[in-house]
């Protein structure tokens, strides 16, 4: 069983929503079913199509399906044969901004959380020459309450 990942990908030239599988290409039909759960969006047909746009991707906003375990892949090779990092992974309720290097060596992934959530873990990760993100591990966006603490009468 493959692990699906859904979210929106924004680039300077176009905005599209994808459903990408970390290890195996995802059929467009599966992507459409996921998209119907998150509202009106346009889809890239597969993870392979997504790889052709790696250099222009600047932001990845993720909302993974509930009750799924996500694998973080290490390396993907593009047509040139150059090893680059895969998407750095994104916790639920997060925004991941990629530097202008896209997913090549030296790229920086900066993490932030949606309102009402707090980032736990590294705020920045770097794509290394070996095609792996450092530090290891994807940060987590934990929910916090904005309610005032209860006061005890005395």
From TrEMBL:
Keywords: Disulfide bond, Sushi. Transmembrane segments: none annotated. Residues 83-143 form the Sushi domain. Pfam families: Sushi. This is Sushi domain-containing protein. It comes from Leptidea sinapis.
